[in-house]
Design goal:
Elements lengths: L1 E5 L6 E6 L6 H7 L5 E7 H17 L3 E7 L8 H13 L7 E6 L1 H13 L5 E6 L2 H7 L4 E6 L2 E8 L4 E5 L8 H18 L1 H9 L1 H5 L4 H21 L14 H10 L7 H18 L5 H12 L12 H8 L5 E2 L2 E9 L2 E8 L1 H15 L2
Helix pairs in contact: 5-6, 5-9, 6-7, 6-11, 10-11, 10-13, 11-12, 11-14
The structure holds nicotinamide-adenine-dinucleotide.
Length: about 375
Amino acid sequence: LREIAVDLGKKTYPIYIGIGILDTIGTLFCHHKISKKLVLITDETVKNLYAEKVIKILEDSNFLITEIVVPVGENSKSLEIVDSVFERIINARIDRESSIVALGGGVIGDLSGFIAATYMRGISYVQIPTTLLAQTDSSVGGKVGINHRLGKNLIGAFYQPKFVIIDAEVLKTLDQRDLISGLGEVIKYGLIGDKNFFKKVSDNFDDLLNKSNLSLYEEIIDHCCRIKAKIVAEDEKESGLRKILNFGHTIGHALEAATNYEYYRHGEAVILGMIAINWLSYELNLLSQNEFNQINAFFDMFPNLNIPAEIFLKDILEKTYFDKKFTNNKICLILLKEIGETIILENFEERNLMYAINYLLKERQQ
Ligand SMILES: NC(=O)c1ccc[n+]([C@@H]2O[C@H](COP(=O)([O-])OP(=O)(O)OC[C@H]3O[C@@H](n4cnc5c(N)ncnc54)[C@H](O)[C@@H]3O)[C@@H](O)[C@H]2O)c1
């Protein structure tokens, strides 16, 4: 069992990583003195795959569980679903001492964390992420939240979990698109902070895609969590360094919103966002042509990432205004200086964003 500490003073917590470690969660819950009354939140797919098993293991360790199953997909990060979950937990007499368990992908983690942060002004929660994206990114760092119809993740909090349990074995059932989506966030760590890691992921891309080596995944998850834990420990509330984790996300989020959160997996949209920013970094003479080409060659290995024909520049641009990185009509953008090194540009001119989106449309529109 690997263990990484997210070092946040009194709020410090561990991330446990392994293969097949779901079987040991009863012990981990007891070790962390989690109260016996739990609410397990999951989605319909993960319910069938893993929730029954997890509930059985926890019940065998004398935990009492209220299970809440929400529909699959981004639309579950909504005020309507939050309302229905609150109704269930109030009716189940969930009290301040109880804990929430988030079992699922990033949608479940963000939603459950938000419920935990706000129910009775905050109760504790545990993350058990089951997608590659959630295991390498969203379950770590305490950003929790939901979407508003006008924009993504606009309602939320910074609220850290008690601990995170990551079992690479569950990736076996993940479909190809969700794997690619997760690999998008994985490669982000290489691009923003670690050239060797970028190379490792590129060199092993085929093995990663066909999931032939779960130990490699365990290693990669460990590496991503270490990078994220370090960044979060330095800048929990995103006043500086943590912003680099948003690399590619402004355009990515806008693409998701412009397509009503129905066309892309989150990481797919972020990959397109990174393709656009890679070009912009090169155009602004920050990034060398050689590295620009290397990054493009990597992204060309992802099959079928495109923008639907009915989406126009203005649809995407309009959605970027609702991005949290927009203040006083100027945007903060993360650009690349080289593979592994970023530059944070505050007060960025909107027209540059427009050029980058135009490039993306030219390259990737169907
Ligand atoms: N909080 C953060 O810091 C942060 C960071 C990045 C992304 N996010 C958020 O994460 C969300 C995206 O997360 P996601 O991509 O995990 O989406 P998701 O939760 O919708 O999961 C994707 C799909 O995988 C299925 N699934 C989950 N685990 C599975 C498994 N083991 N086997 C088979 N199927 C499985 C789900 O049912 C779903 O259909 C977005 O809402 C995004 O905004 C948050």
